Structures are given as C-alpha cells and as structure tokens.
C-alpha cells in the first residue's frame, strides 16, 4: 500500500531524511518511532503531499505522491501532529466542510457524519461549537475528519500527544476499531508502550535514518534482547553494575535510581547462577526479577548505540 | 435540497468562509465602524460648507452636492485602502497560523479553488460594507448633481481596487508565513500604489515643466509621458471617472495651455484597469502556484506510471 524508495529531504544543508526505504502492506498498522526531530513528521508530510522530497519516491496505493497528488489525497486521511480547528463551526458543520471538500454529496454526508461521530464517541457533541470541545475531543473529531472520505491509509502524526491517560485510552480503542476495519495505519509516537499492543510493525528512525524496521518480534529477536533483569539493591547499584558488565550473557547494563537493568541472553539455569554470583559478591539484593522486554527497551537498545542496524 | 444553485456556485471553501465571516461579531462591528466613519465625513463636509462657509449663508445646491460626492468618494477610496489589506492579507497565513491549512490542503479542493474562494469571500464582504454606505450617498442624491451612471462607475471602480488589493493581500498571505508580515507588506505595496505613484507624478511633472520653461519654447509639446504615471494612481483614475476631460489635462503639459485639440492617449481609469489587471492575474497565479509545494522540474525525470486499478478488496 505504501512504498518508499530512497527518500531524502533536505532543508538547506540540514538533512531531515537520508535515503529512507519502507514498504507497508495493506492492513498493516505501522508504528513510526523515534525521538523528536528524527524525521517522522517529514516522512508523513511527504506522504500527505504537503512536502516534496529532495530525491527518491514515495507511493501510496501505487500512486507516486509528487506525480499524482490528487489521487494520493483521495486515499489518505492525514492528521498532523499540531492542528487547529475552525472555532466558529459546530462539530457537524466541521465534518460537513471536510466531507464537501472531498466531494462527498450532501445526502451521503447526512448519513455518514452521525456514524463518524458515533465512532469517535462524540455523538452528544454534534451541535457543539468546536472550540468548546476539550483537547481529547478535538483530537477525536480530527480523527473523524480523516475518515470522511473513507481513505485506505491513515497517516496519524502523534495522535495521542498532549492527551490525558483517559483520552489516550479512548484514542487507542478507536484505533483498534479502525484496524479491524482493515485500514492501513501509519502512526507515529515517541511514547512506545502506547503503540506496543496495537502495531504490527515498527520502524525506528533517528537523525533522518531508518535504523531498524520490521515486525516487532523480529526486531526484538534480532537485537537478542531476550530479557531484561531488574535488580534492586540496598544502594549498591553502581558497584553491582560495574561487576555485572564482565559476566557472560550480559549484553548491556543500565543503572538508574530504580535499580540495575541487565539485558541478559542466558537461559534460566544460567540466570539462577547469575543470582548466586551476585549474592556471593556480598551485595544486598532486595529484588531480582525478570521484566518482559517491551518496545521501549527495544527502542532504547537500538538508539543508544547510534545507527548500527 | 431546494437550493440547487448554491451547490453549483458555492464550493465548500466559500461556504465555510461565508459562514465563519458572518458568524463573527467582529464583522458586524466593522460594517458599523465603516459606515460611521464615512457618515462622519459626510456630516463634517455638510457642517463645514453649510454653516462655516460664507458666514453660514451658503446654500446647498447641486454643485455643492457634486463636490460632496467627490469628497465622499475619495474618503471611501482611502477607507478601502485601509480595509482591504487587513481583510485579505490574513486569509491564507491565518489558516497556517491556526494550523488548519495542512488539513485543507490534503482535501480534494484545488489550489485555485482555495485561493479564489478566499478572495471572493473577502471581496463579497467588502462589497457588503461598501454597499452599506449607500444611504450616506443618498444625501448627495437628495440635492442632485450626480448621475446614477457616475455612482455605478465609481462603485465598479471600488470593486476593482478591492480586487487589486485583495489579490496582493492573498499573494503575500501565501508567500509569508506570518499574517502580521503579510499585512505589513500589503500595506507597503498599497502605499506605493496610492501615494508613491502620485508623488512621482508631481515630481516628474515638475521636472518636465521646468525643462520646458528653460527651453523657452512657445508651443508646448502635445501629450507628455508623465501623464501615464498618474494613471497608476487610484486617485488620478477616480478623478478621471468624475471628469472625462481630466485625463486630457493631465497628459498635456500646461494646464489651461493650448490643449483644445489634443486628445488624451488613454483615459486614466482605463490605463489603471489595464495595468493592474495584469498585476491581479500575476498575483493570483503566483498565489495559486505557491500555496502547495512547488513541484520540482521534470527535466531528466520521468513521471512514474499510473498504477492499473485492480478493484477487489
């Protein structure tokens, strides 16, 4: 559905994107991950026909974005990371405006808009002025706006940013529903656990380069971040971290005020041996537990060493 | 729906612009202030000439009402010069500032529709304001001295000036990211059109006349090029609408000289309309091209193939 080849974008001498290639199959939910300013928004606005690449091609549904922008616009619903609303419009009028702008005839819109409002749980706000809505509601309204022309692809730039936890959960539920509807979704975030349970694939981007990309599980395997062991001690984290670095099967050690995080690739027997070893060093262990490695660990693992993959 | 015509003529962008414009209390307030300002000019004029002139013995006759018409028309022109940039120079950049532009640009609306709809909507509102001043003009009609044709021509001229300033406003609104910059630049260009052209005319007229005096020639050369400069000034063009002989006088070197047989090469208002029509077209063309990112040159790059549509989910 989406095909990006050697995409580069320069702003003056600043390279926002360096030779990015990416394929996203129909119906896939793709998580775009990376720190702020890494190039996520640039990639998304190129796909949304709002910026031109310096070189390379990007296709949506087979249509090259710079050659057939109109065809591409028909197929995408784009939600920018920062967006405004027309204050003096009511929620239904707001959707009518965008619906009409996509050429949907009024009788169809009359039927469609209540369904969309229902999908994003805003039916009770249909006649409210947009500026009276809360941020989370505006975000959901904007999502409904992306859907008026029933696009195949949704490009959502940080849809959960600035939302309180409750609004985030609501947003996530809606996205799950959209996934069930078979939409291809590209969603960017720097808050990884948000994405963890709903994305099929992730692409990690940093300094304009795609440093890892693929199925979440594949990436975890490739990086051999099998498990993370979390050890809490009585204030001896630093000396423990120092000693652990030379142990076998330890790929990296991070220590912070919550304890020591050990990326460990040994099996259970070796792990119990490690615990015995730690205790034999005379370090007062408070807890020694295995944490399920999640996307965030993957992310930290990938980005801490700079571009490597 | 029963309003078929509206679906045909009013596109979604225009519909939204109208709605937003008429819903804002600011719009109603600007109509009020505008009519009050022009009304104040009319009242001041009547007061000055009727009660102050000749010890209060002045009659308000048709020639007086014609003068008043001229005064009102000039006041209106100045008001338009102040209003048009403020109303148009923000139409694109304010959407950019309010972060609604990117979403508008990803819809199916063409760049031309977006730019022209915004222009038409601002023009409609300005026309409404200018038409709202008609009751002030009724004072003039009470005393006669002005033909309806003159009034209509003057209002059509206003429409053209609004179109000119509006197109420039939209151009700068597209080119500059910030509304305040766009407004300032539009006012700057407005100042050149309204003031600098007039000053240039006076300056060059002075030089040409001086050279003529120095040369000691007895017959003035017919038609000086200096007149063309005044044709670029809305004030000059407006006077030429009031007084058809004005253009002739401007082009001949010495006012009151041997100009009986000379003919103006072009009416000032006609020159104004012709020259600035080109400006309007160019301004709008650039605005339409620049509202969306400009496509890189096709040289050395082939357009990709259009995919074969295979429907089948």
TrEMBL record, chain A:
InterPro entries of this UniProt entry? AAA+_ATPase, ABC_transporter-like_ATP-bd, DrrA1/2-like_C, P-loop_NTPase
Gene3D superfamilies in alphabetical order: P-loop containing nucleotide triphosphate hydrolases (3.40.50.300)
| GO molecular function terms noted in the UniProt entry | ATP binding; ATP hydrolysis activity
Give every ABC transporter domain span. Answer: 2-232
According to its UniProt record, what is one Pfam family this protein matches?
Answer: ABC_tran
> Which SMART domains does UniProt cross-reference here?
AAA
Q: Which domain of life is it from?
A: Bacteria
* Keyword Lyase in annotation: no
Family according to the record: Belongs to the ABC transporter superfamily.
The name this protein goes by in its record: ABC transporter ATP-binding protein
């Amino acid at each position: 559905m989406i095909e990006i080849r050697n995409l580069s974008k320069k702003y003056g001498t600043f390279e926002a994107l360096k030779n990015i290639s990416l394929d996203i199959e129909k119906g896939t939910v793709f998580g775009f991950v990376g720190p702020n300013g890494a190039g996520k928004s640039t990639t998304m606005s190129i796909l949304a026909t709002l910026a031109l690449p310096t070189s390379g091609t990007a296709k949506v549904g087979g249509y090259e974005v710079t050659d057939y922008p109109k065809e591409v616009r028909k197929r995408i619903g784009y939600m920018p990371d920062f967006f405004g609303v027309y204050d003096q419009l009511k929620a239904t009028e707001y959707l009518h405006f965008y619906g009409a702008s996509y050429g949907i005839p009024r009788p169809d819109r009359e039927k469609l808009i209540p369904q969309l409002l229902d999908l994003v749980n805003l039916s009770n706000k249909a006649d409210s002025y947009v500026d009276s809505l809360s941020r989370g509601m505006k975000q959901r309204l904007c999502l409904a706006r992306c859907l008026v022309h029933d696009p195949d692809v949704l490009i959502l730039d940080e849809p959960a940013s600035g939302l309180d936890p409750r609004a985030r959960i609501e947003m996530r539920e809606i996205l799950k529903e959209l996934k069930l509807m078979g939409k291809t979704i590209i969603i960017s975030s720097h808050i990884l656990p948000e994405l963890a349970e709903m994305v099929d694939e992730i692409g990690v981007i940093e300094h304009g380069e795609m440093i890892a990309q693929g199925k979440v599980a594949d990436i975890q395997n490739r990086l051999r971040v099998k498990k993370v062991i979390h050890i809490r001690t009585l204030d001896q984290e630093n000396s423990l971290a120092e000693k652990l670095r030379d142990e076998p099967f330890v790929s990296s050690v991070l220590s912070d005020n919550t304890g020591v995080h050990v990326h460990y690739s040994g099996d259970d027997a070796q792990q119990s041996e490690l615990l015995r070893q730690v205790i034999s060093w005379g370090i007062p262990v408070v807890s020694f537990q295995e944490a399920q490695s999640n996307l965030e660990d993957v992310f930290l693992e990938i980005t801490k060493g700079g571009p490597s993959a | 729906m029963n309003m078929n015509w509206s679906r045909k003529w009013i596109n979604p962008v225009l519909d939204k612009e109208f709605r937003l414009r008429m819903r804002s209390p600011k719009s109603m307030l600007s109509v009020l202030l505008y009519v009050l300002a022009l009304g104040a000019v009319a009242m001041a004029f009547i007061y000055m000439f009727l009660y102050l002139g000749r010890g209060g013995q002045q009659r308000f006759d048709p020639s007086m009402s014609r003068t008043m018409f001229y005064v009102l028309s000039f006041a209106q022109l100045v008001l338009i010069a102040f209003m048009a940039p403020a109303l148009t120079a923000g139409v694109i950049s304010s959407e950019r500032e309010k972060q609604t532009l990117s979403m508008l640009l990803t819809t199916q609306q063409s760049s031309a529709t977006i730019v022209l709809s915004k222009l038409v909507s601002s023009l409609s509102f300005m026309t409404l304001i200018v038409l709202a001043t008609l009751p002030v003009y009724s004072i003039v009609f009470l005393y006669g001295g002005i033909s309806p044709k003159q009034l209509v021509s003057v209002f059509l001229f206003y429409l053209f000036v609004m179109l000119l300033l509006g197109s420039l406003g939209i151009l700068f609104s597209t080119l500059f990211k910030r509304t305040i910059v766009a407004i300032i630049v539009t006012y700057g260009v407005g100042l050149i059109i309204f003031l600098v052209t007039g000053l240039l005319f006076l300056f060059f007229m002075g030089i040409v006349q001086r050279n003529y005096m120095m040369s000691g020639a007895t017959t003035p050369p017919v038609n000086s090029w200096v007149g063309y400069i005044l044709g670029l000034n809305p004030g000059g063009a407006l006077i030429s609408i009031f007084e058809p002989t004005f253009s002739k006088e401007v082009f001949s070197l010495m006012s009151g000289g041997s100009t009986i047989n000379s003919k103006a090469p072009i009416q000032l208002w006609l020159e104004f309309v012709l020259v600035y029509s080109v400006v309007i077209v160019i301004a709008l063309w650039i605005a339409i091209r620049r509202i969306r990112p400009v496509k890189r040159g096709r040289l050395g790059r082939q357009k990709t193939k259009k995919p074969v549509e295979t429907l089948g989910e």
